[in-house]
């Protein structure tokens, strides 16, 4: 989603953008396919996963080798793969790498091997930057953004009165705690999202559903925005340190106050006018936060989204970083032809993610 939004926004601003991704990606944003599928899609036997791993490894190895001979002004690496950062010093052009997750062994290894002075490292939150600090310092923190137009502001909640929870239905998202908290608050909970862990759903969620806790399914965007916008508050229950938390930004854009576990980047997004933080993994604390959130002004929630979560702000920050990186590369490179002057329509960027 991040790569798609960034590529689309840059193209609208007049930049020439090529996205290197799998063949299942949206061709409308200028995709050059580097593989048929990725390891994330691989399921089944160990052999099948090994084959997928090799395909992904070969795809990135081929891409990085090919980029040495391309004339892009800058590369933006949004992937979670180790090869782009490990091979960054082989590129004639500068690179920006965005860290979207906490550290894990493969990407950590690649960053430790990265000797490139032309690779700027960005974290999507200060929380992520802190988690990666033992591996590499970050050059910038650029919070993710959303298309505010897709999450319209509602100045009033639905008269029926309900709370909302939405996201992937998996254990680490903590839906079972939201159900408990909503019952203590005394308002019905509407739940939206795909069931990605059948065992968790069948054992921890389905038995807890009823007239006051209803799973409405995996909704299309328009229906989801309508559901979220009509809620009196959004209960956010991550059981791990969320690197950012797009659902929080989306709820705020709709004008919906947030009650959330104080984990990861969520305390960076919320302030006292738009959200209330709860003790992690404590549904009683979440219920108290939810009750307090009901009194918050929906206009303050929207203003917070406009100030902190707007995709245009995010793209402005990346454009500025691209310019700095290209400028530094020009200062240190006398043997390579200077890249085009930076103005709208001049830069050529490659993103992969």
TrEMBL record:
Q: InterPro entries from the entry? A: Glyco_trans_1, Glyco_trans_4-like_N, Glycosyltransferase_grp1
Please give one Gene Ontology molecular function term for this protein: transferase activity
Q: Which residues form the Glycosyl transferase family domain?
A: 158-297
- UniProt superkingdom: Bacteria
Q: Which UniProt keywords apply?
A: Transferase
List the Pfam families hit by this protein, alphabetically. Answer: Glyco_transf_4, Glycos_transf_1
**Any idea where the Glycosyltransferase subfamily 4-like N-terminal domain is?**
2-149
- Signal peptide (residue range): none
Q: Fetch the PANTHER family from UniProt.
A: SULFOQUINOVOSYL TRANSFERASE SQD2
Protein name (Swiss-Prot/TrEMBL):
Glycosyl transferase family 1
The species this protein was found in: Sphingomonas bisphenolicum
Q: Organism classification, top ranks?
A: Bacteria, Pseudomonadati, Pseudomonadota, Alphaproteobacteria, Sphingomonadales
